[in-house]
């Protein structure tokens, strides 16, 4: 985690802040979701508590905490209480592996009679050179918390909800994993920061062995991989159990699915897990297809750093990183809004349609996308 | 291995955070009477007639098995995609494309056979 006390402390605080950011985004997103739903259905939504109803969720939190806590009599108490805690882990671990901005360079400084050497603080919890594989592996652990919740509640509805959730998650994981192969073929790396760096320049590609550069168009993945982007987005909706794929909690059939027996703060923890997953999904979409924290002609690490040139090394580096972090968050928030938008626009699938879409439509399309990408890259990059 | 230390630290932190929230909620919870009706499974309002564990359709098991097969095949494509550019720039592009072409043929045959044998039909 670091070489001295200062670095270890900063790295630990960084991880905790990213986790708390994820937890804090949940009330905000629930508010956005309820207001958006109300506007789309010609209602007002929560608008009584505080300005625009913004403190509604604080009032809700108080109610959640003071609710009576009990576990169903014939269920497994340990599993019942463990499931909400486990629901928090996958999204947190995945979000911490994603770079939210460029690294901060801190020059060496004197403090408490000791010279603290130059540091590089990554704008993420930890940076792996196999970040993509790590995020895919960790985020698929979410199925365990749903299964534990369903099994521990000893309830038919909860059990069926959990089964549906796990079957759906693993089916769409195939399409998700395969739609990413196109991006890997393009950039030839498993590291998120290298993918972002590759997308921060002008559009440049091989054309029969020659490099062609188009100025003033960003080198974003969406330009090379439109099919992959659509497939990944659709698979993400299924992975996060959101409408139109929210069969695990279809009210008409299963009451509330895997959290039928839950109430109060324990149910809220499942929500934190779900919204955290949405956050991770949006961040992945932004990193792979929309240039991460950069927008090429105006907001790249170099141009932003030039704004703050006369502040000197460390300050300029920190300001640059935070401006690019704001860019990244703006893009992420757009995709989070997209999740809400789709939820209140599309109706729900039937379960057999859902499985057919995953196995018989999206998997072949992702396969075709991979083959076409591989062949085109082979033809274009080879020097004939 | 030392790369993974922050992951373990963060996991422990999140678990402790979750347990503390549950303890706080238990302390703050309004105490109600624990009647036997309250502790029953939530169903339609009638007393539950369920005895023993819920029976699970075999379909889910089959889906899980098929998932493992296909997921391993997809994982094999990741290192291939990683080294693809290097192989092309060193002039071995046709070789690496051909090898993966054969692998994909097996993959597509498997998928086709699976659809044909109605392993993916949900009714």
Keywords:
heterodimer; A: 384 residues; mainly alpha; two-stranded antiparallel sheet; B: 123 residues; Methane Monooxygenase Hydroxylase, Chain G, domain 1; 3 helices; 0% strand; flat
The shape of chain A, in one word, is: globular
Strand content of chain A is 5-15%
- Considering residues with a beta carbon less than 8 A from a beta carbon on another chain, report the largest interface and each chain's count: A-B, 74 and 66 residues
Largest sheet of chain B: none
Q: What quaternary form is this?
A: heterodimer
Can you identify the CATH superfamily of chain B?
Answer: NADH:ubiquinone/plastoquinone oxidoreductase, chain 3
Sequence-ordered SSE layout with sheet pairings:
The complex is a heterodimer of chains A (384) and B (123).
Chain A: H1 5-40, H2 56-66, H3 77-96, E1 104-106, E2 109-111, E3 114-116, E4 119-121, H4 131-139, H5 142-153, H6 156-179, H7 181-187, H8 192-198, E5 202-207, E6 210-218, H9 221-224, H10 226-239, H11 251-254, H12 265-289, H13 301-307, H14 313-343, H15 351-381
Helix pairs in contact in A: 1-12, 1-14, 3-4, 3-5, 3-12, 5-6, 6-10, 6-15, 7-15, 10-12, 10-15, 12-14, 13-14
Chain B: H1 5-28, H2 58-89, H3 93-116
In short:
The complex is a heterodimer of chains A (384) and B (123). Chain A has 384 residues and is mostly helical. Chain A has helices at residues 5-40, 56-66, 77-96, 131-139, 142-153, 156-179, 181-187, 192-198, 221-224, 226-239, 251-254, 265-289, 301-307, 313-343, 351-381; strands at residues 104-106, 109-111, 114-116, 119-121, 202-207, 210-218.
Characterization of this structure:
- The complex is a heterodimer of chains A (384) and B (123).
- By secondary structure, chain A is mainly alpha-helical.
- Chain A has one domain.
- Chain A is 63% helix and 7% strand.
- In chain A, helix 10 runs antiparallel to helix 15.
- Chain A is globular and about 65 Å long.
- The model of chain A has no long low-confidence stretch (mean pLDDT 85).
- Chain B is mostly helical.
- Chains A and B meet through helix 1, helix 2, helix 3, helix 6 and helix 7 of A and helix 1, helix 2 and helix 3 of B.
């Amino acid at each position: 985690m670091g070489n001295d006390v200062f670095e270890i402390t900063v790295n630990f605080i960084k991880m905790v802040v990213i986790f708390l950011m994820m937890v804090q985004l949940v009330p905000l997103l629930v508010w956005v979701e309820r207001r958006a739903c109300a506007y789309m259905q010609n209602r007002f939504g929560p608008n009584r508590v505080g300005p625009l109803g913004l403190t509604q969720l604080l009032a809700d939190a108080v109610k959640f905490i003071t609710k009576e806590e009990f576990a169903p009599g014939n269920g497994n108490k340990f599993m019942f209480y463990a499931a909400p805690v486990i629901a928090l882990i996958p999204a947190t671990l995945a979000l911490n592996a994603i770079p939210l901005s460029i690294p901060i360079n801190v020059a060496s400084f004197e403090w408490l009679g000791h010279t603290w050497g130059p540091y590089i603080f990554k704008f993420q919890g930890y940076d792996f050179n196999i970040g993509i594989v790590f995020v895919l592996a960790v985020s698929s652990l979410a199925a365990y918390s749903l299964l534990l919740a369903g099994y521990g509640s000893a309830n038919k509805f909860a059990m069926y909800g959990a089964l549906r959730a796990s079957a759906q998650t693993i089916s769409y994981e195939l399409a998700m994993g395969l739609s990413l192969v196109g991006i890997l073929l393009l950039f030839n790396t498993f590291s998120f920061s290298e993918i972002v760096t590759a997308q921060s320049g002008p559009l440049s590609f091989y054309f029969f062995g020659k490099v062609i550069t188009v100025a003033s168009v960003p080198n974003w993945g969406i330009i090379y991989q439109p099919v992959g982007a659509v497939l990944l987005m659709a698979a993400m909706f299924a992975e996060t159990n959101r409408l139109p794929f929210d069969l695990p909690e279809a009210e008409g059939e299963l009451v509330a699915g895997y959290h039928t027996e839950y109430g109060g703060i324990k149910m809220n923890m499942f929500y934190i897990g779900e919204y955290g997953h949405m956050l991770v999904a949006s961040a992945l979409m932004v990193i792979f297809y929309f240039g991460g924290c950069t927008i090429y002609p105006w907001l790249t690490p170099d141009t932003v750093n030039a704004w703050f040139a006369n502040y000197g090394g460390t300050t300029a580096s920190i300001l640059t990183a935070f401006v690019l972090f704001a860019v990244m968050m703006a893009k992420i928030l757009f995709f989070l809004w997209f999740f809400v938008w789709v939820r209140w626009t599309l109706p729900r699938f039937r379960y057999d349609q859902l499985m057919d879409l995953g196995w018989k439509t999206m998997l072949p399309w992702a396969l075709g996308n991979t083959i076409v990408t591989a062949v085109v890259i082979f033809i274009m990059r080879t020097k004939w | 291995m030392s790369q993974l230390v922050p992951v373990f630290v963060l996991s422990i932190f999140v678990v402790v955070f979750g347990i503390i929230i549950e303890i706080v909620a238990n302390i703050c919870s309004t105490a109600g009477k624990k009647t036997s009706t309250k502790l029953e499974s939530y169903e339609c309002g009638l007393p539950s007639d369920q005895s023993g564990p819920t029976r699970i359709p075999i379909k889910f098991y089959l889906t899980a098995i098929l998932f493992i097969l296909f997921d391993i095949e997809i994982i094999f494509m990741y290192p291939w995609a990683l080294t693809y550019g290097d192989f092309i720039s060193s002039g071995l592009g046709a070789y690496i494309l051909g090898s993966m072409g054969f692998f994909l043929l097996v993959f597509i045959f498997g998928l086709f056979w699976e659809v044909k044998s109605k392993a993916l039909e949900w009714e």
